[in-house]
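In this section we walk through a basic example: taking a raw amino acid sequence and producing a predicted 3D structure, encoded as discrete structure tokens. The instruction is simple. Fold the sequence below.
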Amino acid sequence: MPARRVTCDTHMRAAYATCPSCHIDLCDKCIEHTWTGNGFSDLCPQCRGPIETSRRGGPRIAVEPGAHGFLAQLGDIATYPFHPSVLLTLLGLSVLIWAIGWIGHIGAMFAFAATASMYFHIINRTSRGEEYLDPPDFRNFSEDLLRPVMWYIVSYVPLLAALALASYVLYDAVEFGAIASGELGPSALLEAGITPFALALLGFLLLPLVTAIAAMDRSVLAMLSPLRWVYLGRLIGSTFVVAAGAYYTVSLVELVVFQMWMAPGLASLPIPFLIPILIHLIGAIFMAWQARIIGGMCRPYFDVW
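The resulting token sequence is shown next.
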């Protein structure tokens, strides 16, 4: 079906699907994303029948499952933040964050909520094969701002729990005196065995997986379900391992190159307005890369997610 630039009648958002029975145009908020027994399906909210997509970014590109299929997306992932629609949306987000930053703590909280909403919005859109990016809808405060903040916070719970458990195991295995005196060398760490390090690694691996569950399932219970982790880990397999490596590579580059080097240098320049927005924009670009990586990880499995 050719791409169309229309809006739905309910939310006045960009429509990318049509119900063949009701003949209505649907946006991503209209569509019922429902478990049908064979995986999640997109259904019409009126007749509960299947819908037909009309993607604004062009037809959905089939992606081969597995690590090879994810690696084939690396070119698209690298250029994703620089697509005109994506870059303009990220620029708008950066200007918004800069503008509300003058409000103080309330502005900072709203900026965090807007960023979280954009983060999960990108994951959900790109997992469906959408490269075109519309701004997320902020009309419903609870649905569009509070829920993404909750998902973002909960996505770190398994990581923090794993790190806490790893610290406890390490503390229990190593003599307290070595820790208290600061003499925790390689030999003392070897005495603890591989368990604490395996727990820490598991925690870091769970972060992108739980984030994907938040964007796709939109359920805190699913995010914290070990059964869901195991099922999706087995489903995605090697794709997940490669995607996690790409995710943390981008995170490391952001931390070392941008946060520790570029941002302080830019902040020292005496150019008001433009420099703060540029700093926010660069941070948003890294965020979009991370979200696009998770969306690309989910894309081959979207129909059976």
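Looking at the output, two observations stand out. The chain has 13 helices and seven strands. The mean pLDDT is 82. In the next section we compare this with other chains.
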